[in-house]
Specification:
- It is a single chain.
- The protein has 310 residues and is α/β, with parallel strands linked by helices.
- The protein folds into two domains: 171 residues, Acetylglutamate kinase-like (Carbamate kinase), CATH 3.40.1160; 71 residues, no CATH class.
- It has nine helices and 17 strands.
- The protein has an eight-stranded mixed beta sheet, sandwiched between helices. Strands 8-4-10-11 form a four-stranded mixed beta sheet. It has a three-stranded antiparallel beta sheet with strand order 5-7-6.
- A hairpin with a 3-residue loop joins β6 and β7.
- α1 crosses α3.
- The two termini are 22 Å apart.
Length: 310
């Protein structure tokens, strides 16, 4: 059987602007196609931080100058970013696969991810999003129940929560495609965060951390490997000292000790490590790897990267 791998593409694999993204995904597609040729079944997820911010800014700026229109909720902006990033990835990967004589359908699943309305994260928003606001606009946002943070120069921006993913709504569709031997792009940008209200799913004003969603996707597709791509070949500890150390193979217990020692900060690397630990701890035989795009294939072969196992 082929090795089932969830690949979480980071910002560097996607670029920021439309032209940058089209160039970046072609480069990423070559690496993904290499993995396919090496015998991996691909389940792809990706970040969306610059893209969803751009969409949120554009939609709400438009509404600001056109009174007949309303601003776009965060859930809608997340769905838009999933659509257009997935569109570029699936087309670039399809073209690369066809070039190599591999004829597989690559499908993007617009994915909703369930969050807990009582998640503590809703009381501590951390993700800054959207355009700069005047003081008057900031007060209007707060009157609606939104959170606003003041930045330098008397400028304000919205700040939203990052709740943990509880379940993936479209998981049956994702698994059906995987059972048919296809490649899937899902949970882009962490997925669209939704809350259950009776039999209705309501979009939450939040952003799910991409790495936690990738871990949940790996868990619910019963993947063998979670491969998180970032900017560095290996994860380092003591990085702010004179003797930083690169981690190669660590256990989940060792990873937890490093987390307790605050070796991974609070934002950039910590979610990657925690998501890896959660995934690997769920079942024997699982592995999580953290590396960069350039070394992804070698990392899968065990030659480099940071590997986390039980």
């Amino acid at each position: 059987m082929k090795k089932k791998v969830v690949i979480a593409l980071g910002h560097r694999a996607l670029g920021t602007t439309f032209p940058e993204q089209q160039v970046a995904v072609k480069k990423s597609a070559k690496v993904l196609a290499d993995m396919a040729e090496a015998g991996c079944q691909l389940i792809i997820t990706h970040s969306n931080a610059p893209q969803v911010g751009m969409i949120h800014t554009a939609m709400n700026e438009f509404a600001h100058f056109h009174s007949d229109y309303t601003g776009a909720p965060m859930s809608v902006c997340s769905a838009m970013s999933q659509g257009y990033i997935g569109y570029d990835i699936q087309n670039a990967l399809r073209a690369e696969l066809v070039k190599r004589g591999i004829f597989k359908t690559v499908s993007t699943i617009l994915t909703q991810v369930l969050v807990d309305p009582y998640d503590e994260a809703f009381y501590h928003p951390v993700k800054v999003i959207g355009r700069y606001l005047t003081k008057e606009e900031a007060e209007q946002e707060e009157a609606k129940g939104n959170h606003v943070v003041e930045e330098s120069g008397n400028r304000y921006r919205r700040i939203v929560s990052a709740p943990k993913p509880q379940a993936i709504i479209e998981i049956d569709a994702i698994n059906a495609l995987l059972d048919a031997g296809q490649f899937v792009i899902a949970c882009g940008g962490g997925g669209v965060p939704v809350m259950e209200q009776g039999n209705v799913l309501k979009g939450a004003s939040a952003i799910i951390e991409k790495d936690y969603a990738a871990g949940k996707l790996a868990e619910m597709t019963n993947a063998d490997t979670l491969l998180i791509l970032t900017s560095d070949e290996k994860v380092e500890i003591d990085f702010d000292s004179d003797h930083p150390a690169a981690l190669e193979h660590i256990t989940t217990a060792e990873a937890r000790e490093h987390i307790k020692a605050k070796q991974f900060g609070e934002t950039a690397m910590l979610p990657k490590i925690q998501a890896s630990v959660d995934f690997v701890s769920g079942q024997e035989g699982r592995e999580a790897i953290i590396t960069n795009l350039e070394h992804a294939l070698d990392a899968l072969a065990g030659k480099t990267g940071t590997h986390i196992t039980l």
